[in-house]
């Protein structure tokens, strides 16, 4: 059914908050009064406004991109770390001398059979 | 739709803000008199920033402004001095001095109406502090005892005075 029972008069007649102070007798209560009474009017507006972020969304995305790389490097095994370093060095060298040096083969992961 | 009636006896209602008088302290719980058929209970943890070690400084005979957490006709009413978000927002122990008196519930509703003339006119007179409980109790505090008593008398008489008489009385007072 669509009947709601409301036993308090506060809701029916939109009564204000019961604690009041006038002419600066109690500054905290005066602040409260403004807060309470503006809550009724500005409730809807507050819900729409989001909190202003200190860092913008774009910056967050950029940060995360590099972050994943750096944290990922931490968990690589030693061999993989060395290989990564070589790759980086080779890349830098290539840029300087126009790829005269052949990049080293990637020697990771494969199990090398011991030669008899 | 609601039924408007003249009442003097208060019936506890959930969510209502009332002024209660501490009558007893039973271990962790205070017993408050709110003018209803039963005493309301108030736990010492229901204050802002209260922990088991950090108890609120409440004694018998103190005035408390709080709201009802539970209030139906089958159970003893329970009060708290804290919001649903954990803030006190003006509730708690009402300070020293001041004057507590009782009026009918209809007058309280009139005074709490959004744009109440009585309150607006009174606020022009002197600086004072006012706490209205939905159980018919009003607490007033002004700078001197005389000013407090004047405000008390005006509020009590407002029930039966017309707007004209009230304005005359206030004009006389602000003239003096």
UniProtKB/TrEMBL annotation, chain A:
* Domain of life per record: Eukaryota
Task: Return the InterPro entries for the record.
Answer: MPP6
This one is known as M-phase phosphoprotein 6
Phylogenetic placement of the source organism: Eukaryota, Metazoa, Chordata, Craniata, Vertebrata
Please list which residues make up the signal peptide: none
Biological process according to GO: maturation of 5.8S rRNA
Pfam families in alphabetical order: MPP6
UniProtKB/TrEMBL annotation, chain B:
User: What positions does the domain K Homology occupy?
Assistant: 98-146
User: What Pfam families does the entry give?
Assistant: KH_6, RRP40_S1
Tell me what this protein is called.
Exosome complex component RRP40
Chief localisation class: cytoplasm
Q: Where in the cell is it found?
A: Cytoplasm; Nucleus, Nucleolus
Q: Which family does it belong to?
A: Belongs to the RRP40 family.
Q: Which domain of life is it from?
A: Eukaryota
Database matches in InterPro entries: Exosome_RNA_bind1/RRP40/RRP4, KH_dom_type_1, KH_dom_type_1_sf, NA-bd_OB-fold, RRP40_KH-I, Rrp40_S1
Instruction: Please name the source species.
Output: Manacus vitellinus (golden-collared manakin)
Gene Ontology terms: cellular component: cytoplasmic exosome (RNase complex); nuclear exosome (RNase complex); nucleolus
Which UniProt keywords are given for this protein, alphabetically ordered? Cytoplasm, Exosome, Nucleus, RNA-binding, rRNA processing
Gene Ontology molecular function: RNA binding
> What biological processes does GO assign it?
CUT catabolic process; exonucleolytic trimming to generate mature 3'-end of 5.8S rRNA from tricistronic rRNA transcript (SSU-rRNA, 5.8S rRNA, LSU-rRNA); nuclear polyadenylation-dependent rRNA catabolic process; poly(A)-dependent snoRNA 3'-end processing; regulation of gene expression; TRAMP-dependent tRNA surveillance pathway; U4 snRNA 3'-end processing
């Amino acid at each position: 059914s669509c009947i709601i029972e409301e036993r308090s008069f506060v809701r029916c007649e939109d009564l204000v908050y019961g604690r009041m102070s006038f002419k600066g007798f109690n500054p905290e209560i005066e602040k409260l009064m403004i807060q309470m009474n503006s809550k009724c009017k500005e409730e809807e507006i507050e819900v729409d406004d989001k909190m202003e972020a200190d860092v913008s969304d774009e910056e967050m995305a950029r940060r995360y991109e590099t972050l994943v790389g750096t944290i990922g490097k931490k968990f690589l095994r030693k061999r993989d770390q060395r290989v990564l370093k070589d790759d980086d060095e080779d890349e830098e060298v290539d840029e300087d001398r126009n790829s005269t040096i052949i990049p080293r083969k990637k020697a990771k992961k494969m199990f090398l059979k011991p030669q008899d | 739709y609601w039924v408007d009636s003249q009442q003097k006896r208060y019936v506890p209602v959930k969510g209502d803000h009332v002024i209660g008088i501490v009558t007893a302290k039973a271990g962790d719980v205070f017993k408050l008199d709110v003018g209803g058929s039963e005493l309301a209970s108030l736990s010492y943890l229901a204050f802002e920033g209260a922990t088991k070690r950090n108890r609120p400084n409440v004694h018998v005979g103190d005035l408390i402004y709080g709201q009802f957490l539970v209030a139906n006709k089958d159970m003893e009413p329970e009060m708290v001095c804290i919001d649903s978000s954990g803030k006190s927002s003006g509730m708690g122990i009402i300070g020293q001095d001041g004057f507590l008196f009782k009026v009918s519930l209809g007058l309280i509703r009139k005074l709490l109406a959004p744009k109440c003339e009585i309150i607006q006119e009174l606020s022009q007179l002197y600086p004072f502090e006012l706490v209205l409980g939905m159980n018919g109790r009003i607490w007033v505090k002004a700078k001197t005892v005389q000013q407090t008593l004047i405000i008390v008398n005006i509020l009590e008489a407002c029930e039966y005075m017309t707007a004209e008489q009230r304005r005359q009385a206030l004009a006389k007072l602000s003239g003096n």
